[in-house]
Specification:
Oligomer: single chain
Structural class: mainly alpha
Number of domains: 1
Radius of gyration: 16 Å
Number of strands: 4
CATH superfamily: YbiA-like
CATH architecture: Orthogonal Bundle
CATH class: Mainly Alpha
Strand content: 5-15%
Strand order of the largest sheet: 1-4
Distance between the termini: 44 Å
Length: about 160
């Protein structure tokens, strides 16, 4: 029986902030998106929270993913007005681009098959499953949606 009733027992549980997790947003796999190179998906996500180009650049050039995250959590900086509407899109763009840049990462995601993917953050009820498994698990859903898209693209290419 699963510890969390909303999460299947055979789920892939991962931590997006683990730099050793290929499917995480903290993994050190740079990519090019929106005319810039980004050190990690987290750098991109945190920078895109803000309309201020200078603050975006400060985050993009942060020396570590932890520093980028801290800069992205500055309460005194005004987030973009549409942030709550676009944050899933921002994370999806970053992770999808990372997968397209690194075929091994894309294959790792495809190899999960139909497995449910859950982000196991106990404190994050938006991106993760939360302490009690009732979180939104948006990060896991982003990965599952990207996986579906990658599989569709592969099938379309094979049938072309």
């Amino acid at each position: 029986m699963s510890l969390f009733k909303n999460i299947p027992e055979d789920s892939l549980m991962l931590n997006r902030s683990d730099p050793d997790e290929l499917l995480g947003s903290f993994s050190p796999h740079s990519f090019f998106l929106d005319d810039h190179e980004w050190s990690t998906a987290e750098h991109y996500y945190q920078a895109m929270k803000f309309p201020d180009k200078e603050h975006q650049e400060l985050i993009r050039n942060a020396s570590s993913v932890e520093k980028a995250r801290r800069l992205g959590h500055h309460w005194f900086k005004r987030k973009r007005a549409d942030y709550s509407q676009v944050r899933l899109t921002l994370m999806t763009r970053a992770i999808y681009t990372k997968c397209r840049t690194y075929p091994k990462i894309a294959q790792t995601l495809i190899d999960t098959g139909e497995q449910f993917i859950a982000e196991r953050s106990f404190s994050d009820y938006y991106w993760g499953c939360g302490r009690d498994g009732r979180g939104n698990n948006h990060y896991g859903r982003v990965l599952m949606n990207i996986r579906s898209r990658l599989i569709q693209e592969r099938e379309a290419k094979a049938n072309a």
